[in-house]
Automatic annotation (TrEMBL):
Name of this protein: Fructose-1,6-bisphosphate aldolase, class II
Gene Ontology biological process terms, A to Z: fructose 1,6-bisphosphate metabolic process; glycolytic process
Matches recorded under Pfam families: F_bP_aldolase
Keyword Metal-binding carried by entry: yes
Active-site residue list: D82
Binding annotation for Zn(2+) 1: H83, H180, H208
Amino acid sequence: MPFVTLREVLADAERGKYAVGAFNTNNMEIVQAIVEAAQEERAPVILQASQGALKYAGIRYITAMVRAAVETSTVPIVLHLDHGTSFEQTMLCLKHGFSSVMFDGSKYSLQENIAATRKVVDVAHAMGASVEGELGKIGGTEDDITVDERDALMTDPDEAVQFVTETKVDAFAVAIGTAHGTYKGEPKLDFDRLKTIDERVETAIVLHGASGVPAESIKKAISLGVRKINIDTELRQAFTRGVQDVVQNKPGEYDPRKILGPAKEEMKAIIKEKMRLFGCSGKV
Ligand SMILES: O=C(CO)COP(=O)(O)O
Ligand SMILES: O=C[C@H](O)COP(=O)(O)O
Ligand SMILES: [Zn+2]
Ligand SMILES: [Zn+2]
């Protein structure tokens, strides 16, 4: 099955009132874990490559690995750029075969973010690809900011309407209190803000920084319109747990396959659990 775009999988998710998991990939074992999990769960899935992934594996390896997975898969797969930083980078990804890109213009002013995102959308749509935009700032959990500062960085509902209308993005990443990385306490999500945005915006809403967000909050976010959920940190933790387990319990083990194989299985278990939580299991 060829790659599909966010448009197809998120339209189905909207009809079925569930969310599709978007998992970050950096190497072969992660690609296999995500695609095998999707296959076994009969779930649509989004594989995404971050700035770090492009630096670590390179765009050629990422596309080649995900293509290899797609050749034998029977579930819809989106290959998506996560937090794209420039027009040029989004175009390079499309040229290499990504079916979807995120342009993260959240560091710009509203007007500049709209203009830059719109430019990506124009070309991506002409090429049949989809685009995710971001408004408000989804920081890192390590960012040392106060609650008031965090509030000020959250997505403004009026600006959200203007942003999606003028950019025509296919997916819309919001800042409602989640952050990338591990949370110190329990993350506090601004559900009222999410509800207001969802009532006023028809575009599918994306939740970043979903690792470590309790299941109940995830379910509530989905009930309030979230249709794409990004998970990276919990996959990294699962991978590392798998590696540590072998290294500690079988100190003589020197076959990389016997170290990375269990790490892959740890990731698969987490991915399947997320797919069931997101409601996308059994949908294809
Ligand atoms: O939002 C993400 C990728 O864009 C992932 O966030 P986490 O690493 O917190 O899961
Ligand atoms: O959005 C951030 C992702 O979790 C990963 O970022 P990185 O691979 O560039 O470290
Ligand atoms: Zn961002
Ligand atoms: Zn993110």
